[in-house]
Amino acid sequence: MPLALDGDWTGPGRFALAEGDPKDDGPKPRFDLEVTRSGATGTWTSPDGETVPVRLRRVPKPAPFKSAIRQPRRFDDPRWPVTLTYPAGWRLDVSDSELRLRSPDPFDVLFENELSCTQGTGVPAVPEPDEPPVEFVWPFFRGRSGWLVNVSGYGECEDDRCEPAKVEQSRGASIVRGNSGYRSYGPWGYMGAADRESHLILAGDRWAMCSDRLLDRPSRLGARR
């Protein structure tokens, strides 16, 4: 699990890092380290003063998706109405209700760049002429004329917050796609904006909703036969 660290150089080849938000007052766990060829060595000190030796190993940066996908794996589980192509070596956790794909890159882990899906059954009926669009699974709403995606990141599907979603047919299922842009929050608050692709797979009475900040193109995720 990644640690949020902040610090500075304390001398030639030496640096100190504190765990947690640097804006928080009070004692924090601290690393005092010296750079070596293979990583760093030093000590970790707890808030109450307990000290233990540590050794950090330098890890090569993992290959980006476009390179890693040259060794693809295929997810095709009958419990899920979706299929997925992803790189070998990436972590895929699957249960009856949740699916999560993560990169081995610590940067992706820290900023929650991942693919996460949930699934269920039941789809709302088309609203009556005098009714507003019905929220299904965020950010998708069902309107009188079709599926809508909320691009504002909050609120109901009104004013200019919603746009028509892209709908395609695949293997007897409908795939509803939309860009639901949102702000990315790093370990110490706001650290920039990021886009998120949303995919809603509808196969009969079954559905799967996937939030994607990881795949290189939407076609990596599709409907299962």
Shape designation: elongated
Amino- and carboxy-terminal Cα gap: 36 Å
Please summarize the sheet with the most strands: 7 strands, antiparallel
Q: Extract low-pLDDT stretches.
A: none
What is the CATH third-level topology name of the largest domain?
Protein Transport Mog1p, Chain A
Strand order of the largest sheet: 8-9-10-20-19-16-15
CATH first level of the largest domain: Alpha Beta
Which CATH architecture of the largest domain? 3-Layer(aba) Sandwich
The succession of helices and strands, N to C, reads EEEEEHEEEEHEEEEEEEEEEEE
What is the averaged pLDDT score?
86
Give the fraction of residues assigned to helices.
under 10%
**How would you classify the helix and strand content by structural class?**
mainly beta
Whole-number count of domains: 2
- Strand tally: 21
Overview of the structural elements:
A hairpin with a 2-residue loop joins strand 17 and strand 18 (189-194). With 225 residues, this protein is mainly β. The two termini are 36 Å apart. It folds into two domains: 5-57, no CATH class; 65-223, Protein Transport Mog1p, Chain A. The chain has two helices and 21 strands. The strands form five sheets. Strands 8-9-10-20-19-16-15 form a seven-stranded antiparallel sheet, with no helix packed on it. It has a five-stranded antiparallel sheet with strand order 1-2-3-4-5, with no helix packed on it. A four-stranded antiparallel sheet has the order 11-12-13-14, with no helix packed on it. It is elongated, with a radius of gyration of 22 Å. The model has no long low-confidence stretch (mean pLDDT 86).
